[in-house]
TrEMBL record:
It comes from the Bacteria. It comes from Mumia zhuanghuii. Belongs to the shaker potassium channel beta subunit family. This is Aldo/keto reductase. Keywords: NADP, Oxidoreductase. Residues 15-315 form the NADP-dependent oxidoreductase domain.
Amino acid sequence: MEFRHLGNSGLKISEIAYGNWLTHGSQVEADVATACVRRALDEGITTFDTADVYANTVAEEVLGDALKGERRESLEIFTKVYWPTGPGGHNDSGLSRKHIRESIDGSLRRLQTDYVDLYQAHRYDVETPLEETMQAFADLVRAGKVLYIGVSEWTADQIRAGHALAQELGVQLISSQPQYSMLWRVIEEEVVPTSQELGISQIVWSPIAQGVLTGKYKPGQPAPEGSRATDTKGGADMVARFLQDEVLERVARLEPIAADVGLSMAQLAVAWVLQNPNVAAAIIGASRPEQVSDNVKASGVRLDADVLKTIDDVLADVVVRDPEMTARNAPKQRPS
């Protein structure tokens, strides 16, 4: 496992992080989830990403139990706040001071830790003044409950504004967590250049495009049983945008490229996002321990420029690049 600095901070994280969105507390049982976490640790992963909203707080509980007994100083534990949790009351979502302060205490309790290494704003809250949000985050840093702060799926302008306030408050906003893969490159035009300028790294989710880049979905064929495309708890909605025959046909053409460089399709996909120097880590998930072992083999892989160009040529116009997609997909009001 190789390690990279997160933003311009002194914090190093494993370049492959383990995340439990759509799996722990939802798709897989707790014992299997624990086995996946244990395998991640065995493979050298030290960075674990979760959120209070995953499985309505259960994912944090599962992760906390799975990491119990590990040396805390050897781990980097990340979580997030924004989406509704609990009964979904009028203050149970967003980035108000009230919700942030109450959410961090719940997350720390479920994760069985005194602090998180990174606390992330899971989306931008259009109903709360940014000054209020950043002041609340700064207070958590000063209280020792949070070491660093980050954001997820914020636009370049929002990142710039948040970073400026963080600097004024004397705290470090060092990360952005966007979706990023061979098929979804909306951060490249605006978010990445802005982040590079400000000393912010990307921690990217869905580097395998919800499983599409493994090649298991075939054009003109039904989705495999047990795959994310058959998950009615949310996975099917997320993967649907990629399940078009034109996309799947192009993905199939990546198989010989992966074979030529001695990688599985999943390893190629993870290695591809790690070629971007602004990416500090790619988040992988798993429903079986062997998936973790397969994906971590992407760590340290260097893809030649001609391989990268061939991938671009194959995928061509099925790649989503429009930077406006970040704003377009963002909540227009605080969810309830």
